[in-house]
Amino acid sequence: MKEQKSYFILVLILGALSTISPFSVDMYLPAFPAIADSLSTSISNVQLSLTSYLIGIAIGQLFYGPLLDKFGRKKPLYIGLWIYVVTSVGCSFTSSVESLILMRFMQAVGGCVGMVAAQALVRDIFPVNKIAQAFALLTLVIAVSPMIAPTLGGYITAHFHWHWLFIILSIICTLIIFACKWQLPDGADPDPSVSLRPKAVTKKYLEVLHNKQYLTFILVGGIAGAAPFAYIAGSSDVFINIYGLTVTEYGWLFAFLSIAMIGATQLNHVLLNHFSNRTIVITALCYQLVIGFIMILGVWTNSFNVYFLIGMMFIFLTGHGLSVPNSTAISLAPFSKDAGSAAAMMGFMRMAIGGIVSALVSVFHNGTAIPMVFLMASCILIAGLVLLYYYYSTGELKRFRNIKQD
User: Fold this and answer.
1) Residue 247: count of CB within 10 angstroms of its CB
2) Which has fewest Cβ within 10 Å: 89, 95, 179, 394?
């Protein structure tokens, strides 16, 4: 019983670390119109603060990978989290969209350490054959964030002021820091042989990327995982300004759609007892692609009402809860020594792609839902083509159903 309680606490803390950045994104989405009005700017400019945050996550993770390998997991973790706390307070005092974009970038650079450290610690603590289950549990914890964050953000924005969103984020992160100090294991020992010189760091990342399985599945997971970023970047404008939902209604809608990912992660536990990681990833991509094209057709022909669009998006987003934990497990399976660098590069790729996709939503903004749903479907299509090429080039195209779990 005590062991089960310790396991629960460990997963909860690792999930909280992984949730810092998603929570920081989801919580302020309902406030986009209010921020735009307050800072006398447009919705598309406010969307760029999301893009800058995703870019900050991508770049920051590249630095934390070698630091986590050289100094161990805890020291870089604490430094990054305290940077997040300070810059969150800074975000609350911004008076222009330009300063908000900059502060969000710095906030992301600090907070992204939680994502890298959590993934590396999973690889440190759990055996290889349990990694997928561990990531599925983390994904479950992370999936709770969209249920809480936008709803809370909607009420704060409606009854107080959007500046309070960032004050609350700083308080939450401070609590996570103390939880890590008291309950989180140290993980892998520091490796003094790891060099922090740019040439050596670059060489290490290139060595990690040389693994074909790793490279393929971080691309598949990154590109497919960017589809929700298109949804995140465009949904507040689509559902509030186009379909006429209130800020609080949008928060509840976001929470409802997050149930799709939560249910999928629970289903993933069952599916892993019968199917390989790779089979689940392929199946998820196939049905997401079909739903994606249905959404494009429905929005293009104006044949969807808001409820039908919500239903299609719910089905679409279940694929995220299936493809992400399994592609992550397959990616990290070959690594034991360089898990920190491997996790950092994977995080960089995912956030960089997500940042590009969210920026494209802003670039192609035309007052309709077309940019959002088109980019969502396009991400799945490209991810599927990458995976198809991998199986074709390795001669496994006809044998993937028989591949056992990594």
Assistant:
1) 21
2) 95
- Alpha-carbon distance of 155 to 329, in angstroms, equals 37
CATH number of the domain bearing residue 354? 1.20.1250.20
Report how far residue 111's alpha carbon sits from residue 351's, in angstroms, rounded to the nearest whole number. 13
Question: End-to-end CA distance of the chain, in Å?
Answer: 29
* Greatest alpha-carbon span in the chain: 61
Tell me the pLDDT tens digit for each residue of 356-398.
888 888 888 787 888 999 999 999 999 999 988 888 777 665 5
| Residues contacting 198, CB < 8 A, separation 6+ | none
Is the distance from CB of 25 to CB of 88 less than 8 angstroms? no
SS3 210: coil
Nearest-5° Cα angle at 174, 170 to 175? 120
Helices of type H across 72-127? 74-92, 97-111, 113-125
pLDDT tens digits, one per residue of 83-103 = 999 999 999 998 899 999 999
Instruction: Tell me the residue range of the domain where 54 lies.
Output: 2-402
The b/e string for 195-233 (b: 16+ C-beta within 10 A; e otherwise) is: eeeeeebeebbeebeebeebbbbbbbbbbbbbbbbbbbb
Closest CA to 390 of 344, 350, 343, 331: 331
Q: How far apart are CA 272 and CA 276, in angstroms?
A: 6
User: How far is Cα 379 from Cα 350, in angstroms, rounded to an integer?
Assistant: 12
- Distance in angstroms (rounded) separating the CA atoms of residues 294 and 84: 40
Number of domains in the chain: 1
